Amino acid sequence: MTVGKFQASLEDARKLLEKTDLFRQKGIKQINTSGVSDEFKTASQKADYFQVYKTAKKNFDYDFLLKDESFFQFEFKPHSNPHDCPIVRYAFFQNPQEYPSYRDFLLEQGVIQEEDSEDDEIFREEYEQSLIEQQINLSSTTIRFDVDTQNYRPRIHSVAHIHIGHKSNIRIPCDKILTPLMFVVFVLKHAYYNDWKNIIENTDRQVLDSLQRSKNDTLPLSENHWIPEEKHELFIT
């Protein structure tokens, strides 16, 4: 996967999120070129998940912000040796607070409005305040995809792997380097079940085409980074 293919897949990922109505906005940074803040790096090593999330939000350390305040980061650096693995880090941070939609909030307040009502924003300030006061969502998690050749130990620490959870040893091996689009598809399916179900049952041709393309440009690991013994275990392919 080249930088050009990475950028093209990143754009496809954004379009898919827009189509599913989860996308809110692009970040003011491009993590692949700007990097994340030093404060975020420190928090990632030492802080709990809620603090890591708040630090990233404060420093705009994200590429895509979703409507539920979850966000994505994407980093891809080609290796100086074109035959070696690139440095890859994709991350999804789920909002660790309960996050009802604005329309759900109106229903809870007994306010029933028509779609696209001119008065739809009257209760927006109260809604924003209610989000600040929300309880911690104990089921929230982070999902990360890494390509790490330096720490490669066959059957112990795979080169390409998906992390589930903050400071967790759950590391699921992959035999390929994922594209941003493939990573977003994985997150949608496993973190947004109802939205994914709606995509599959009611999607249009453009979204279907995007899903079918999601595995394009994934790069198989070389024999040096994926030995036969690793194929005997459960892995993502």
Commentary on this structure:
With 237 residues, this protein is an alpha+beta fold. The protein has one domain (3-99, 134-232). The protein has nine helices and nine strands. The protein has helices at residues 3-19, 31-34, 38-46, 49-58, 102-108, 124-132, 180-191, 193-202, 205-213; strands at residues 23-26, 64-66, 71-77, 87-93, 142-147, 160-164, 171-174, 176-177, 219-220. The radius of gyration is 19 Å and the shape is globular. 26% of the residues are buried.
- In the sheet with the most strands, the strands line up as 1-2-3-4-5-6-7
Q: Can you tell me the residue ranges where pLDDT is under 50 for at least 5 consecutive residues?
A: none
How many beta-strand elements? 9
Largest sheet: 7 strands, antiparallel
Question: Please, what is the average pLDDT?
Answer: 84
Instruction: Please report the number of helical segments.
Output: 9
Distance between the termini: 16 Å
Quick one: overall form? globular
What is the rounded Rg? 19 Å
Q: What is the share of helical residues?
A: 25-40%
The portion of residues forming beta strands comes to 15-25%
Structural class: alpha+beta
Give helix and strand order, one letter per element, not per position.
HEHHHEEEHHEEEEHHHE
Number of domains: 1
